[in-house]
From TrEMBL:
Record's keyword terms, sorted: Hydrolase
Name this polypeptide is given: Alpha/beta hydrolase
Domain of life: Bacteria
GO molecular function: hydrolase activity
Organism: Rhodocyclus tenuis (Rhodospirillum tenue)
Length: 219
């Protein structure tokens, strides 16, 4: 209850005890009344049903959730009587940000105004950054360099060409291995069918060797 009354909860308790038929109920009403009295003497004005329910359960009077039952109307009436007697709960103090406290220490109003604008801009940028983080999806392409996606299959498949798998050094070595100048310097030459032969005509690398390297290089 939000209103305040001068009626002491003792009077409400006496009325409730007078109509209570069971001794166990009268005992529990008295215990609940004592619990609320201690709460009031401690300076608390929180007599909400959830708060008193937790205290009652801790004291072993009754289960907190039982206060919401229809049979617990008398207990709720007693709690409400204490709430009205104590008055509304004090409003919670407004929590100020640490940056606000620092700004209030600046005596020069002009400098304080500038700093307030800077802090406001910082907070705005932080909010925008958090929004971007929440809506940003980074896709990492782990396909090897030179890979292409084949659409021939029902599920896209990454196809990697052989030349794309070579390092620059490996590519250069293969190009040199079948170049005419390189072969000539070593007394070798390429045959009509891609084989590599020496000066005596002896086959050093089998038929198709040079052609195979050029296919790998894509040339």
């Amino acid at each position: 209850m939000s209103s305040t009354t001068d009626i002491h909860p003792n009077a409400v308790l006496e009325s409730l005890l007078a109509k209570a038929e069971r001794s166990n109920r009268r005992a529990n009403l008295t215990k609940m009344h004592e619990l609320c009295r201690k709460q009031h003497e401690a300076g608390s004005r929180d007599f909400s049903v959830p708060s008193i329910g937790r205290l009652a359960e801790a004291e072993g009077i009754m289960k907190g959730r039982a206060l919401y039952n229809a049979q617990s109307a008398d207990y709720r009436a007693l709690i409400e009587a204490w709430a009205a007697y104590a008055g509304p709960a004090a409003p919670k103090p407004i929590k100020t940000q640490a940056s606000h406290d620092y700004l209030m220490r600046i005596e020069d109003p002009a400098i304080r105004s500038i700093m307030q604008a800077i802090v406001a801009e910082r907070d705005k940028l932080k909010a925008q950054l958090n929004t971007l983080k929440a809506h940003t999806h980074v896709t990492v392409d782990r396909r090897p360099l030179g890979a292409t996606v084949s659409s021939a299959a029902r599920v896209p498949v990454a196809v990697v060409e052989l030349v794309a798998q070579l390092t620059p050094t490996e590519r250069e070595a293969l190009q040199k291995a079948v170049s005419a100048d390189y072969l000539d310097e070593r007394g070798l030459k390429e045959g009509s069918h891609g084989e590599i032969v020496n000066e005596r005509g002896r086959t050093m690398f089998e038929v198709g060797f040079a052609r195979a390297i050029r296919k790998v290089l894509g040339s």
